[in-house]
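help with these tokens:
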Amino acid sequence: MKLKLLPLFALTAVFVALPAFAGFSSYGIPDSSEIRREIAASWLEAPAALIRGKDAETYDDGAGHSFQVRLEDEKSFSKIIIAPKSVMNVDYIKGDSTQRVETAVYREGTAGTWVLYRDKKSDKAAKIRIYFNADPGVYLELRNGENKTYADMVLYNCYMVRSVPLGVRFKKLYTMSFDEIQALTRKSLPWASVKVVPGQYHPVLQMAAVIRGYLPRIVNVHDAAYNEEGNLYSVQLNEPFDLSDDALVRDPSLEAARLAVDSGSGLVLSAPGFVKWVADGIIEPSTGSYTKLGNMVAPTVNYSSLGKRGVISQTWNLSLTLDCCRNLAVDALNARSTKRSYKYKMGASDVTGVDVTVEPFVSDIVDDGELRSVGYIKDTGYSIAELKSLLYVLAITESQYIYFAAIKSGSKAGDSVFNNCAVLMPYFDDNGRFDCIVFEQGKEYTLDKFVELHPDSYIHLNRVKSSDYFNPLYK
């Protein structure tokens, strides 16, 4: 193998890195096993005193693939990082001119990166981390136990599996290929839930583009929606929405809504009205009609009349947006079903399959350690802390689906209320990177911003198949 020293450059602007090689493991990522066999004695097993003064080194594996080996320190660990080569465009500024140059980089977290963690105090090898997807928040960790080797699979801040015994000595992993590790863990790790296949998300992105084009026309107004005739109605009263002079005196914020209606220049929608508008855009091309407003608000949660929430529910609708999301998802299911007609039955188990109830995580990673995953709570959903990880899995296992999300505000699942809703559209781009488009109350958000806006909330998801023939109501 040919050894080269890596020169250092000052980078002023960094853009998306792209793989710079053609050979991959069967999983589709560069594999450093040949490099690790070459450097096992000089890097991986050498005492810390001998490797601490080493400069970063680059190795070619003889098949045209380049990797960099380097040492970096964290608070408690020293990391020996073996990172594959990527290229990125970098702007070099010299005086008044800027030159863009394609530059080689070796970033930790790039798919194919292999990292050995060694305890700083004892110099003992603690764990190996392998990045195998385009998202650095997704990785496999192999831990060095007392007499066993354990595997963890991490998806952002959630453990999909934790402490799975491998049945192989830890040091043997130093030279094992990624394909060999996958074969070893084929039945014990959930590879099918993290295997990204790009190029499946055209209907999702097509719908998002259409919705995005309508956003400037949407006026957000509480309780407003369009009924099955395309007329502006009150969601809760199921009667024409009041935009009279008296209504404007009581609520001056309705002025924008009346202007939109009078001029025919916009859509007047509440949060559930917006979700209905999206659902109607999927349903109408198949059925020729819109969903009925009365069906949308049909109750789906059965509260005990003797309990606190049962008493409150006699006066206030505690599950309005959950009811709307469930019923609209069932209507969308019926629009493409040719064999039977479904209905969400209150208090019964969901036979429609629209509720998302999967529980792919065993625990969450928190600042001071681990917290057991609560998973799905009936008629409540998931903690928003797990939402990003959950949508990542769903985008893989249920490609081309979008989700009507009912938002339950409040830090305690039993004392909070469903008072908002949104449309979530997860997908992977052509480079295998995860993203999720969020539409809430007529506005678009990133998933991270959506999570930030709803701290300590619960999110109930209902699955809806996306459509290339999406045609929402135009006003």
Observations:
- Residues 271-287 form the longest helix (17 residues).
- Residues 249 and 255 are 10 Å apart (CA to CA).
